[in-house]
Specification:
single chain, alpha/beta, TIM Barrel, Oligo-1,6-glucosidase, domain 2, Immunoglobulin-like, eight-stranded parallel sheet, five-stranded antiparallel sheet, about 15% strand, globular, binds alpha-D-glucopyranose
């Protein structure tokens, strides 16, 4: 396999709960994944990233880890993982696993030991425990809010039954933040990295990679924009060159940790890679995560959050190439994942929908037509896959799945829904188990028909088996684009902007492919050249909400 594969790889995110369910209990698992791996090889992706499958009480769908070096029985066993890894490698697919270092589950033995050991103990120093403020310490140590809503502090009851210290949790109260200034924590995670590297994984997606270090003194902080994005970052419009940082995001001290991890990975063969989930802006700041001695990649959320608007897209693409290029890193591109509204719905929304708000019954009357929205989603994908660098795909987007917007309240599972008292729907709408066969129980997700989130009837239309034989299906489009991307070496190419088009047209050349995306309101006349692929079929001029790949004239 070529070296530094991550520079141009297309990486497919599997959300294990919802991909394929081998034992029929309604939650996806490793056996299910294994049985469907050939489909991913056939799709034409280079690597697969698995959201967490480690031991966990599943209070945040596995992002609350109770044992970092074992597999939750819900998903199978370490032996099942070995099977998946062996098969994937045989199919030419790299495997990246999710590492969650910012917090553990409150069930983790470290947290249980910290609770038992009491204030001032070395064990408490593994987490962020503080005395409360006010008379009797009844008030939280500072004003920080959880990303999922409500205060970021929970008070514990000490062993003698009295109200005690408070612990920090930037996410759910079942996810206490670790203290990354503790040498114990640092050493423990190096061991965890080595455990999985020895097991043979090709890399890690690092959860909340901007959160590990908190500012000294834990000063009060009110984000400029309430709630929403995983970063609680300022709105894109008020971002100046380097806007002030929240005292819990993007602190300088995180970089030392990733430099150490870089060295750990460098000690292994095979170009192992780290990809950071860091919700920081602007892109010039994000590029610090991928300096030559830190991570290999970081998710480009600025791109994901860019609306379907010509000028904004050109700008974010150019800024990304420059910012990452300046540190010698590839840019990455992403439109969907398990935390955001699926882009085959999101890009056509006509109302503000901050990350985490989700979509639900209250919004039904203001939703876009799903065929119109899918058309836009396909055009956006065709633009993304033409760009040099690495792209991330989220399971089900290759089927054109829309966000599930009508989940009943009592089916919802995202802690965001509970912690905001139903004010934010949260992320369940993009996490519904995906359809494989139109006529099978649970649409082929398993054989029993059970599903941890109810699947909509609409899934029959989107099932993989019906799309396989349809040359105009979204699945066929993804396969074609991925194949052409590989043939033309677009992942290692360069963007050359093409002038002479309307403001709402994104036109560029990458190697010998001309790419034109029409985000405007009128059809666009195309230059000469054979059509290699189009996000929707057309004849003559390029219709609105369509992207075309043409063989560029010499
Ligand atoms: C990341 C994950 C998200 C999770 C959170 C807390 O943002 O992508 O799903 O809830 O971290 O671990």
């Amino acid at each position: 396999m070529a070296s530094e594969w991550w520079r141009s790889a297309v990486i497919y995110q599997v959300y294990p709960r919802s991909f394929a369910d081998g034992d029929g209990d309604g939650v996806g698992d490793l056996r299910g994944i294994r049985s469907r791996l050939p489909e991913l090889a056939e799709l034409g992706v280079d690597a697969v990233w698995f959201s967490p499958f480690m031991t966990s009480p599943q209070r945040d769908a596995g992002y609350d880890v109770a044992d970092y070096t074992d597999i939750d029985p819900l998903f199978g066993s370490l032996a099942d993982f070995t099977d998946v890894l062996t098969d994937a490698h045989a199919l030419g697919l790299r495997i990246i696993i999710d590492l969650v270092p910012n917090h553990t589950s409150s069930d983790h033995v470290w947290f249980q030991a910290a609770l038992a050991a009491g204030p001032g103990s070395p064990e408490r120093d593994w987490y962020i425990f503080r005395d409360g403020k006010g008379a009797g310490g009844d008030e939280p140590p500072n004003n920080w809010q959880s990303v999922f809503g409500g205060p970021a502090w929970t008070r514990v009851t000490e062993a003698d039954g009295t109200p005690g210290q408070w612990y920090l949790h930037l996410f759910d109260s079942s996810q206490p933040d670790l203290n990354w200034r503790s040498p114990f924590v640092r050493a423990a995670f190096v061991d965890i990295l080595k455990f999985w590297l020895d097991w043979g994984v090709d890399g890690f997606r690092v959860d909340v990679a901007h959160g590990l270090i908190k500012a000294e003194g834990l000063p009060d902080y009110t984000p400029p924009q309430a709630g929403g994005s995983m970063g609680g970052r300022p709105g894109a419009d008020d971002v100046e060159d380097e806007p002030p940082l929240a005292p819990y995001w993007g602190q300088e001290g995180v970089h030392e940790i990733y430099r150490e991890w870089h060295e750990v990975l460098a000690g292994y063969d095979g170009d192992r890679a780290l990809c950071g989930e860091a919700w920081v802006e602007p892109l010039s700041r994000l590029a610090k995560w991928v300096r030559p001695d830190e991570m290999q990649q970081t998710f480009n959320f600025a791109y994901l959050e860019t609306p379907w608007e010509g000028g904004a897209l050109r700008e974010v693409i150019q800024d990304s190439l420059e910012a990452f290029g300046a540190v010698g890193a590839p840019s990455t591109w992403v439109l969907s994942n398990h935390d955001v509204v699926r882009h085959a719905t999101r890009l056509a929304l006509a109302f503000e929908n901050p990350q985490g708000a989700g979509i639900g019954p209250r919004d039904l009357k203001r939703l876009p037509d799903r065929f119109f929205a899918l058309r836009r989603g396909r055009a956006a994908t065709a633009l993304m896959l033409a760009l040099p660098g690495s792209s991330y795909l989220y399971q089900g987007e290759e089927l054109g799945l829309p966000e599930v917007v009508d989940l009943p309240d009592d089916a919802r599972q995202d802690p965001t829904w509970f912690r905001t008292g139903g004010e934010r729907y949260g992320r369940d709408g993009c996490r519904v188990p995906i359809p494989w066969e139109a006529g099978a129980p649970a649409y082929g997700f398993n054989e029993t028909g059970r599903s941890w989130l109810p699947q909509p009837k609409l899934w029959a239309e989107y099932a993989r088996d019906v799309q396989k034989s349809d040359p105009e299906s979204t699945l066929s489009l993804y396969r074609t684009l991925l194949e052409l991307r590989r043939q033309h070496g677009l992942g290692l190419g360069e963007v050359e902007w093409l002038g002479g088009y309307h403001e709402q047209v994104v036109a560029l050349r990458n190697r010998d492919v001309t790419v034109i995306a029409n985000l405007g309101t009128a059809p666009v006349t195309l230059p000469a050249g054979d059509i290699l692929a189009a996000s929707s079929p057309f004849e003559g001029r390029l219709p609105v909400d369509t992207t075309v790949w043409l063989r560029a004239a010499e």
